[in-house]
Amino acid sequence: MNITLIGMKHCGKTTLGAALAARWRCPFYDVDRMIESHDACDTGERLGFREIFARRGEDYFTKLETDVVCELYLRVSEAKGSNVIAVGGRTVLNKKVNDLLSALGLIVYLEVSPEELFARVTRAGLPPFLDEKDPAKHFLDLCRERAPHYQRLASLTVNLDGLDADAAFAKFCRAIDHYVPS
Asked: Taking the model in full, what pTM does it have?
């Protein structure tokens, strides 16, 4: 079974995805890391995905994201066994890839309250993608904009409010086991 994780930045997609892939002993694909690798191959410069977006623009980033998801779709749809995929927080806004994501298998929305997410996002300082004048409002606006897209695309929603990594993983696994009995 293939599982694709969606949700806002810092909701746990990479952490829980990597843990589930380790538990299942299957490949884990992080679309943001794949975007970074593809950009490095294209440009010869190693940048983080946020910096790629900021320096090269939304159109370039969206094209690269589309190429990565298409390549991943081909790789995973032809593979036997399970795969776990974590997509970027904005990937659900890319209409070109929504059908591909749906065709891959179970889509799980990792839901965390915007307030908790904002606290997580700003722990290491204010990220450059947030408006410096009112970062909390900007982040909450992003959450409100994206939530309907996550809800529409997801087959399963798991709320992880207030949970540490271990409790979140346990709840996430129970939800998947319940949704897809073995």
From this structure: 0.92
